[in-house]
Amino acid sequence: xxxxxxxxxxxxxCTGDACVTVYEERRFLGGYLVFCKYCSPQSRPPTANxxxxxxxxxxxxxxxxxxxxxxxxxxxxDVSAEEVDGGCQVLRYRHQFRAHNPGMHSEHEAVIxxxxxxxxxxxxxxxxxxxxxxxxFRDRFIVGWLSGFMQLDSVAPQPIIGWHSFTCTPVVxxxxxxxxxxxxxxxxxxxxxxxxxxxxxxxxxxxxxxxAESYRQVHAALINAYDSGxxxxxxxxxxxxxxxxxxxxxxNFSDIVDDLIRWAEREGRMADLIRGxxxxxxxxxxxxxxxxxxxxxxxxFGV
Length: 303
Known about the structure:
The protein is of the alpha+beta class.
């Protein structure tokens, strides 16, 4: 048997001081290409060859020939809560990932995808090993690793992936989106310096994040030039996309714009968004300044 791709997800939920992580391990026995991508928001439901997992934060696309082996388990002890100076709660996560198929004797590669509790962000310096990706999903943050596996040449079970650990702290909801975007940008820059394992597993390979300064410029320009109604009209008229499909519509317009920016990053439509807004709103000084900044330095806008 050749490569056996693995996707392992863990979703951490906390009630008071008690935390539990629900894990799902999916092994694709056919060894064909498995493509994982950031899942929300999606403009369409999953097809017969796609699966949305980990509370909708990851979409898996697999070959029809793949057989799927699923193992589910939970851990009540991999997250501990403690208070530090000032009464702030800190969560410490530590888990040793192992293979749950002792009869498998082939080489593996895996995605490990962990969903943090609501409004918690990890301390970047504490994450071990350093993840290859991180992003915000609504009111949660996700960290993920692409891990190369060892060969299982012995009958005795052995840790294949090893220990993963980090600490995380709560962030007030009003600051969560901005801090999460900054953290995701920092993680992407650090991951770019790593040698991502090549193989059958790829996560979010086409998305390109804005720099922090460019994100602030796009966000401020759209906030200044539009409201929910006019932004929806511009998006439909210029890009052929419905705002309520790519963003969660609520009372906080800043969050709507943030969702739209993340969609444009993920789908490679940042240039279309900036050009569309520029054509739609020729009288907005901020929108036109944004267009000029994009034309001068498109790489800063992930293009």
